[in-house]
Amino acid sequence: MLDAALLPATMTYQYNGVTDHKANHMSLNEADTCREHVTPALDAAGWRKSPHALKEQHNFTDGRIHVTGNRAVRGTRKKADYVLQHTRDIPIAVVEAKDESHTPGAGLQQAKDYAEILGLKFAYSTNGHGIVEFDYITGAETALTAFPTPDALWARLTGNLGLNIAQSQRLATPSYTGGGYELRYYQQIAVNRVISAILSGDRRVLLTMATGTGKTKVAFQICWRLSKAKWNRAGDGQAPRILYLSDRTMLVDDPMAKDFRPFGDGRLRIENGEANLARQVYFSTYQAVAEDQSREGLFRQFPRDFFDLIVVDECHRGSAGETSPWKDILLYFGSAAQLGMTATPRRDVNADTYDYFGIPIYTYSLRQGIDDGFLAPYRVLRVVPTVDATGWRPTIGQMDANGRLIPDHEYGTPDFGPTISHLPRTEAIARHLSDFLTKTDRFAKTMVFCVDQEEAETMRTALVNLNKDITSVSPDYVCRVTADEGGIGKGHLSRFQDVETQTPTILTTSQLLSTGVDAPTCRNIVIARMVNSMVEFKQIIGRGTRVREDCDKLYFTILDYTGSATSNFADPDFDGDPAVSDEEQMDDEGVIVEGVDPPEKPGVTVGVPPPPPYDTPQPRKFYVKDGETVGIATELQLDLDKDGRRLAVTSITDLTARTVREMAASDAELRRRWADKSQRDAVLAELNEAGLDLDALAAEFHQPDADPLDLLCHVAWSIPVRTRGQRAAAARAHAEFFQRYSPRAREVLQSILKTYEEHGPREFVLPDIFRIPPLSEYGNPSEIATLFGGPKQLKEAVDQLQAIIYE
């Protein structure tokens, strides 16, 4: 409880009927308010009796990554003053503190913003002398004189969730805490919401989390906590039996070997047609247990009530389709709790995924992941080959490489690959990509998505021949990874994923790598085929969204040769409601069963006549091996805008001008702020938050000696640039200023001016500037201060000097 005896009584005011007191003397700042008033009040309510009950100054995001030019910088991390927790894994409330000069409720909006991000039901604001609570359960805002106790808040929360005492205790079961298993805030929300839903009796639950945000880690912690809580469908206090399902081998083998490793010998991979009933956590592809025309489904060898929990990864890919044989597995084990996980479904009443699993219990989008700094932002390089810009038409009577007459028509981007295999175009793309890597980093991990396995091989060959100086030394510099490679391809992929290996550097593929491949250092995603499915598009770009700061991987580039990225990013469904894919059937390696590895939605060309009938089966497309040279018609770089909402062509100049004009209405206002050290620091922080680098700006304008202020004013308002030397010379002309001080003090000021002239305004940091040459030669900071009559007078002199410099 807040102690009234500690409060100065010289000033009072009321907030929602509660009298507050403020001192007439200088107010405590926020840090002192927290230390002297807020933390003791939380102590009094019991929030420090448990080692995990209170987090102070808690950073819960990493700070958005801003990309300008070739530089990536992090923005400000979101930080809550206090997070109140029932256990280490279950936060309950957020507290925002303001200094004494504010009202108790001044921080409530920020507290509510943080509570909504963190998925909390209670938000508090305080100035150390009063408390305001917002309760998301009731919608009530209330003024308090003390913080609620941990038990009181926990009871309010579990009552809202409809959990009894036993269920509440199970919800509080700790997560696994081994190295690498710590959860980010959104993962913690997902785990707690799913467990709470299952404990409440929900049997179908859906999680939507963007690629790269750790769905498998979330699934493991859900399984671990339910297992340690001894929850099962029968309620007999035994650990649950769990089935982990997906449609691709790599999406099953990786979780079993890595994330679920703590389950030890309790794990089992279902394979070879055998049903072992003696394990706890089972892993399988649908294909391994499903039935078909030639065999009865292996899943029927398990009793219907055998599993308590089924985790369905990438659940949108046919698991819930009405005609899908995979749905029979889920219906057979219908008494089990079933958790669907996906990166890209969409709320659509006609979508099978939603009909089966329901609306997502939690959604964490690609956009939110980028905003929080957990996912890498992207830039798009839109590249248009000449044949895509103008269209391609065969000459009259032109035959393809197999001696087939090519139907006379103008072919465009959607036709290249599905209808026309155009080798000159493929080589043009390979040449442009090789040139791009030469200009940036030839060993930057790169994935190239082609229309099918055949085109992936053609692209691989073209890239090899364009990089013979590397492939002569490292033959695996470019590799194809498709279903045809089998184990060899898996080996290439494994080395590509390894952050310690340099080669393979470039992988060409069709569809095999579009999902479930964790390649944390992949810097380039190359789209060399049409991608008409939003689901597939999100999965493809998801290969680049991992952040690896230790490898200097903070953003990635999408090289788009078909316009797919540009059009998909402009689609209103992109990161609004994620999309649902058409139903597909894939074999155990993820290859579409029908046809020979076709694209999901091949481009449709209106008016193309069917090829003439042949007596024998013919290749499904025409092969153009030679002809006119194909070049690049257009190349355009697009970056995410400041808000991360859309792609735009933005130069460092445009971005700087817009940012500066947003922070200052005129050059006079900017100069006024810049002349004050504390306000200049705020301006620099705003520039950094926008991803702007003053050194890069100086390089852009070839003005290394310009004062940063002049560069900013020049870009924003076309004001002529002055160098630091010119400003220093003008400042020296203020004889009346320097004459105020003793000869020795004047020497110090002249030395400061010289330091500014050489290094810029970043050197105006007191007292640090006096600890390094040449100013350290005048003595230590205290000795230098005596030359001016004391520290206060020294600061006034330096402040005045800065004001003169920026007149």
Helical coverage, percent range: 25-40%
**N-to-C terminal Cα separation, in Å?**
52 Å
Count of helices?
28
User: What is the gyration radius calculated from CA atoms?
Assistant: 32 Å
Cα shape: flat
Structural class: alpha/beta
**Strand residue percentage:** 15-25%
* Largest sheet, strands/sense/barrel: 8 strands, mixed
What descriptors fit this protein?
8-stranded mixed β-sheet, 34% helix, single chain, 807 residues, alpha/beta, 7-stranded parallel β-sheet
In short:
The chain is of the alpha/beta class and 807 residues long. It is 34% helix and 17% strand. The chain is flat, with a radius of gyration of 32 Å.
General description of the model:
The protein is 34% helix and 17% strand. By secondary structure, it is an alpha/beta fold. The strands form 6 sheets. It has an 8-stranded mixed β-sheet. The protein has a 7-stranded parallel β-sheet with strand order 13-14-12-15-16-11-17.
Ordered list of secondary-structure elements with their pairings:
Blueprint: E1 11-15, E2 18-22, H1 30-44, E3 54-59, E4 65-68, E5 71-74, E6 79-87, E7 90-97, H2 108-118, E8 122-126, E9 131-135, E10 140-144, H3 150-161, H4 165-171, H5 185-199, E11 204-209, H6 215-228, E12 242-246, H7 250-257, E13 267-269, E14 281-285, H8 286-289, E15 309-313, H9 325-332, E16 337-342, H10 352-357, E17 362-364, H11 366-372, E18 378-385, H12 386-390, E19 420-422, H13 423-439, E20 445-449, H14 453-466, H15 468-471, E21 478-480, H16 487-497, E22 506-509, E23 522-527, H17 534-541, E24 556-560, H18 564-570, E25 622-624, E26 632-640, E27 647-648, H19 652-663, H20 667-675, H21 677-689, H22 694-700, H23 708-717, H24 724-732, H25 735-738, H26 743-759, H27 781-786, H28 791-805
Parallel strand pairs: 7-8, 11-16, 11-17, 12-14, 12-15, 13-14, 15-16, 18-24, 19-25, 20-22, 20-23, 21-22, 23-24
Antiparallel strand pairs: 1-2, 3-6, 4-5, 6-7, 8-9, 9-10, 18-26, 26-27
Helix pairs in contact: 5-6, 13-14, 19-23, 20-23, 24-26
